[in-house]
Amino acid sequence: GGGGAKNKSGGKKNQTPTAGVVEAVGSQTGQILASLQIQSESIETLAFSRHHSLLAAGSVDGSIVLFDSAHRFAVRRHVKEAHEGFAVVQVAFGGLRDEKEAWLLTSCGMDGVVRRWDCRGGVAAAAAAGAGGGRPGQQQGLVKEWRGHRGEGEGGGVLGFVLTDGGKVVTAGDDGVSLVFT
Question: Is the pTM of this model over 0.85?
Fold first, then answer.
């Protein structure tokens, strides 16, 4: 029998807490820095840029929001119809081939499409997207699309993707197919 175990803060081990009560012990709890509530439905995926202060959030509402963590998580861009109203399933920054691709964000969704976005603001994004063109997404930095899955949210969405060293995009489809794109 000894005097009981001690916790990391030096006090005696806590007894089992009462049901429904949550106890926080000193410095083991984190401080909330921001509450990011821009999208209208749940957040499905997050990605942080290794080279820039950007956080991308993809939502079930079909939108992608870019937050700037260096400026108190200010909204840099909100692409409301990133996947035409279908859930955004995955977002990932950059490519593996080149550090110049660090501004690129790749996303996939239940619409069956993988899209690449230029996350730079203003003129740079418009130039990279061919000065806007006719598609609404190009006004918000859309650079490229890969299509081939059934889509439309009925068992044909893209559930995930990987970016290869050689610049290929490999998808995992809800339609039972993986596609390899150049």
Answer: no
Task: Record the tokens describing residue 142, joined without a space.
Answer: 């859309």
| Dist. CA 87–CA 108, nearest whole Å | 9
Residue 49: partners with Cβ closer than 8 Å, 6 or more residues away: 55, 56, 93, 94, 102, 119
Q: For residue 91, what are the β-bridge partners?
A: 107
pLDDT tens digits for range 83-134: 998 999 999 997 655 667 778 999 999 999 999 999 987 444 444 444 444 4
How far apart (Å, rounded) are the C-alpha atoms in residues 88 and 52?
Answer: 22
Residue 140 and residue 143: Cα distance in Å, rounded?
Answer: 9
In the structure encoding, which two tokens stand for residue 115, read together?
């899209």
Distance in Å from the first CA to the final CA of the chain: 67
Cα atoms in the 13 Å half-sphere on the side-chain side of 38: 20
pLDDT for res 33:
80
